[in-house]
Amino acid sequence: MAVIWGLLSLCLAVWLNLIWLWPSLGPEVAWLSYGRLAPLQHHLLLYGLGGSAVIAGGYSIAMHSVLQRESRTDAETAIADIALLPFTLKLMHFTFLGWQAVVALGALAIVAGYSSGQYMAEAPWLVDLLMTLVWLAVAWVFFTVLEQRTLRRLPVACWYLIAGLMLVLIQHVLISLSVPIGLLESIPLFTGSLEALIQRWQAGPLPGGMFAFGLIALLHHMVTSRSRLPLYSHRLATTSFWMLVLLVTWGGAPLLFASALPAWSQTLGMAMGILLLAPGLALSLNGLMTLKEDWHSLRRDPLICLLAAALVSFALAVLEYSLLSLPTLNALTFSAANSLSPAASLGVVATVAIVMAYHLLPPMRSLALLKTHALLAIIGTLLCVAASWATTLLQGSMWHVPADDGRPLYTLSEVLEVARMPMMISLGGLACWALGLLLMLLNVTRTLADHKNERQATHERQRLSSGSHKASSESATPPATSSGGHYA
């Protein structure tokens, strides 16, 4: 389902880009307007693709930490080896069905115009309540599986998942606090500058801990699993973890400039945003140094190549947020159409999600399709990031050039026209991503069909073998004789 949600999201992104370039293409229907499809695209990408990968990856990390065999990627075999209560197994099924219901109901509500208006939490209160129940169930299953581990030391990935689960529950509930006035409508509990503080500051640039800590956990897990190498520096990982725990909730402080909040809070947020650069770069450096021990694997394993690209994208995303903490750059970039590049959404969320999906599935039937998908994903991310940076710098600099009478020198049409070529480049990058996910869906479908046929053939051979052994044992047994005949 994560692949399907991701494909729908990228197809929507391509369509939105086409509407931006040629507005006449957009239908005059409220349900399909740009203002409703844009938050829908973010919802499907972050929650449909990213959230599904985080939940599935969390279960895989917990099982691997118990089994202590990183080569085990078959989820069904892992569950069979771990003693889980029937209630826990039912909760696992509930998390799958419940999360898909959250994504689907949230998407329908956004398209229908029922939005909470919260930052990256557009779904109505009823969907938020279901999402909270799903996260509680995920936490229960995760800690229930971890209880069965034999070693006291937890992997680094488990640290980040535990912090992510705690943070996402606290912040999701805090952001979504509201008074329901209908089945899909509610009034936010906080208003004005206090609501801005909670949405931007406490939520941070990423929605809670789900994508901040959850995707970092998946990165740590897959870097060590795919490369078969230990982490380069556990001390660096520990330091980065505690610094992120203290600073990640301040990641949205750069978005608070020129707001109604007091000046001291904006200055404090600027300092914390700059400090956030250290753990982000340290985390990326730790992963890249781990892969450096087997650098030749980048050429033979496309998933390791994608992991390296995700680590670089994570460093770029953290660098962007830290630079936005500087008031001068903040004022320059937020005057443009694309203040933030898709290094975080495509380079980290989407890339880590597809690598996790490939990691959990059986070996792909077509290695050529896998390599093509990896190449398209990297090229698409580079094109989108370059186009976003070009648009931001060009439009931001044009808006800040005054005329002799003090008005802006360039008109709105001139500023928008400058972004036309970068937006066409971005369209090419998004098309690469959509085509890559389409190839992935095809490859995964064929692989699962072959895997199902192989399992059925194996079961049939085992059944025939057991039947032949039983028949041979019966034929080898001598017929029973009566005791009287023996003495006769």
In short:
This protein has 488 residues and is mostly helical. The chain has one domain (2-450): Cytochrome c oxidase-like, subunit I domain (Cytochrome C Oxidase, Chain A), CATH 1.20.210.
CATH class: Mainly Alpha
Structural class: mainly alpha
Q: Helix and strand succession?
A: HHHHHHEEHHHHHHHHHHHHH
Helix content: over 70%
Q: Quick one: overall form?
A: globular
Oligomer: single chain
Low-confidence blocks of residues: 69-78, 480-488
Total of domains? 1
Q: CATH homologous superfamily name?
A: Cytochrome c oxidase-like, subunit I domain
Total strand segments: 2
Strand percentage lies at: under 5%
Instruction: Record the strand order, biggest sheet.
Output: 1-2
CATH architecture tag:
Up-down Bundle
Whole-number radius of gyration?
A: 26 Å
Would you tell me the overall average pLDDT? 80
By CATH, the topology is: Cytochrome C Oxidase, Chain A
Chart the SSEs and their pairings.
Layout: H1 2-21, H2 34-67, H3 75-81, H4 86-112, H5 125-146, H6 156-175, E1 178-180, E2 186-188, H7 192-202, H8 208-227, H9 234-247, H10 263-275, H11 277-292, H12 297-300, H13 302-323, H14 327-333, H15 345-360, H16 367-399, H17 412-418, H18 420-476, H19 483-487
InterPro entries: Cyt_c_oxase-like_su1_sf, Cyt_C_Oxase_1
Biased composition (Low complexity): 465-488
Biased composition (Basic and acidic residues): 453-463
Textual characterization of the structure:
By secondary structure, this protein is an all-alpha fold. It has a single domain (2-450), classed as Cytochrome C Oxidase, Chain A, CATH 1.20.210.10. It is 73% helix and 1% strand. The chain has a two-stranded antiparallel sheet. α2 (34-67) packs across α15 (345-360), α9 (234-247) runs antiparallel to α11 and α13 runs parallel beside α16. It is globular. The N and C termini lie far apart (76 Å). 43% of the residues are buried. It comes from Cobetia amphilecti.
